[in-house]
From TrEMBL:
CDD domains: Cis_IPPS (cd00475). It holds the Pfam family Prenyltransf. Mg(2+) binds at residues 34, 221. Catalyzes the condensation of isopentenyl diphosphate (IPP) with allylic pyrophosphates generating different type of terpenoids. This is Isoprenyl transferase. The lineage of its organism: Bacteria, Bacillati, Bacillota, Bacilli, Bacillales.
Length: 254
């Protein structure tokens, strides 16, 4: 499989020097898919055209991750702060999951992909939530890549909610404050049951975390690229994985 990936990289791989080695594939890759708006602007297109094009990148990278044997791919599709954008852009972004799943769900199922969602369901329009929940239901039995959409997700809210839940449990006498461990906290995060990301990718040249999985990224390897998300290809993804494989993770040790 790895030879196949190398040969498919072709000219791009020579340009980027990307080569994925066998073994040591990150279990969990998280991506901040940034630069859709700027990509559109450079082409004289409306911002939403960038989001639409970004949807096609979602498909490409999902397949690439699945093929490499990545177990979890978490994509930051909409943050709790993105509601501040103009109404028309928010509406467009809310329709993308529905459009994406209408086009791609059958192929995701054929590829054994399991769709999940990490975020606050209550504020989502019915058409968004229905599409995502139907995909989650239809793919629940799949055992391949977990495609985890961070949709209406925000790390500060996630952590504040976890603290509140622990306080409520303590007030109800279910746990004593001195007994609280990291495990208790993690169990109350939206990511409960999913391992921490091994690798975080952010596109578009921005060097920020933007309220994304701040607890879970504590020991993740970070990889940034100037490439805008709509232009992010399998070759770029392989380049990120290749660099991840060359790094030494010490988790604070020696
Ligand atoms: C950030 O780029 C991107 C987003 C807020 C939305 C990301 C959504 C997608 C890539 C499509 C998701 C597809 C599915 C299937 C859910 P930006 O708009 O902030 O770009 P800019 O910084 O250049 O303005």
């Amino acid at each position: 499989m790895f030879e196949r990936i190398r040969s498919r990289l072709g000219r791009g791989s020579q340009q980027t020097g990307a080569a994925v080695a066998e073994g040591n594939i990150p279990r969990h890759v998280a991506i901040i898919m940034d630069g859709n708006g700027r990509w559109a602007k450079t082409r004289g297109l409306p911002r939403v055209a960038g989001h639409h094009s970004g949807m096609k990148t979602v498909k490409r990278i999902t397949m690439a991750a699945s093929e490499l044997g990545v177990e979890y791919l978490t994509l930051y599709a909409f943050s709790t702060e993105n509601w501040k954008r103009p109404k028309a852009e928010v509406e467009f972004l809310m329709k993308l999951p529905q459009e994406f799943l209408a086009i791609e769900l059958d192929e995701l199922i054929e590829n054994n992909v399991q769709v999940r969602m990490m975020g606050y369901k209550e504020d989502l329009p019915d058409y968004t939530l229905d599409a995502v929940e139907q995909a989650v239901r239809r793919t629940a039995g799949n055992t391949g890549l977990v495609l985890n959409f961070a949709l209406n997700y925000g790390s500060r809210k996630e952590m504040t909610d976890a603290v509140r839940m622990l306080c409520e449990d303590a007030a109800a006498g279910l746990i004593r404050p001195e007994e609280i461990t990291e495990k208790h906290f993690e169990a109350r995060l939206l990511s409960n049951g999913i391992p921490d990301p091994d690798l975080l990718i952010r596109t578009s040249g921005e060097l920020r975390i933007s309220n994304f999985m701040m607890w879970q990224l504590a020991y993740s390897e970070l990889w940034f690229t100037d490439v805008y998300w709509p232009e992010f290809t399998e070759a770029h993804f392989h380049e990120a994985i290749g660099e991840y494989q060359r790094r030494t993770r010490r988790y604070g040790g020696l």
